[in-house]
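Batch manifest line 439
LIGAND: pyridoxal-5'-phosphate
JOB: complex structure
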Amino acid sequence: MKPLNVPGKETKELLERDHAVISPSYPRAYPFAMDHGKGSEVWDIDGNRFIDFASGIAVCSTGHSHPKVVESIKNQVDKFIHISSDFYHPVWVEFSEKIAATAPFKEPAKVFLGNSGTKAVEAAIKLARSHTGRQHFIGFFGAFHGRTMGSLAFTSSKTQYRENFSPMMSGVTHVPYPDAYRPILVQSEGEDYGEAVVRYIEEVVLARTVPPQETAAIMIEPILGEGGYVVPPAGFFPVLRRLCDKHGILLIDDEVQSGVVRTGKFWAIENWDVEPDIVCFAKGIASGMPLGGILARASVMDWPMGAHGTTYGGNPVSCSAGLATLELNEGGFMKNAAEVGEYTLDALSEIMTRHPSIGQVRGKGLMIGIEFVKDRETKIAATDLRDNIVERAFHNGLITLGGGKNCVRIAPPLNISQDLINEGLQMLEDAITSAEAEA
Ligand SMILES: Cc1ncc(COP(=O)(O)O)c(C=O)c1O
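JOB STATUS: finished
ARTIFACT:
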């Protein structure tokens, strides 16, 4: 495979202009400068074509510029673009009705809409405190919930996100994420690692430092996102739910990355048949238009008028794109995510047999993580190797993203074809082969 000559001339020039004017804080992955995209393929401004295994961090769920999404946006823009959440309009209500109908709990749901993942998490934090009248929260190490001052208090995937920003919002205690590949707690006989984590929460955290009767909520990503697509063991969510019920603690399910069909179910938590109290969503919900929010049990979303809001709540263009996205998901993309996801997991497991640097392949649907290690025995994280693989994949014509310390994330559009998966996996395996040879 002949590597692409990237970054090309146009990209290099753009990078110079970008660096002169755009905040240096954005964590750029590598020099890909987008010109246009179609489905699961994207082209840079030098004319190079790439297969997209990242979909704008799991956002372009229906592929780039799906005609139905484009049409819905155009139609709405012609009518009106904004009126603010101080008033009413039908697209907002229709979208909210449709997303409420997907709620992973039996009770009726109510919806709050904003325009990003972090705003969804902020809403969940405030609602949990408002509804319970309690102050404390439990979060998980390795999690990413956003970068504003409330969500940042939960984000713990890297200290880099917190450096220079303390003090954080108070009241958040972190516990180990149920990562059975890298356990740090001791399991009792007969329990899985997920059950061990919940036992730790109950016997250590809630017994020694965080009074359960003062704990508003436990917030968790059902599958770690930015932290490396870690999937909890089977026993975890049912016992976590029981613990919450025992103490009247709310379960906040942050599905900003894992939700809206990505795992082959509408909500990732449905993979464990457990009902949360509040669900956060964003990213894939509107195929790239800024839309995020929470849905909560109607009995929980009981805050009074004025308690929370945002100018852009229920933006009609985003809600229109959201409606088109939901329709496409129902019309076959969910099935595709489950089927092509399973195919991809199998193919990666086979690739793993040829590459000793792959310690684990895991995931659900089209949310798949590949963990790279120095050797399978010690499981020492191979961060440099992972970085090299991501870079080489880019040169081979494949867009991927790193996750955690040593993971590559696979999160293509949900309608990606098996042919493009095969082509992309070949590019990825070539990148792994050459990076291993160089290591
Ligand atoms: C699980 C999760 N929650 C919250 C966020 C924050 O979303 P945003 O970047 O839209 O603020 C992210 C972003 O990656 C995420 O993956």
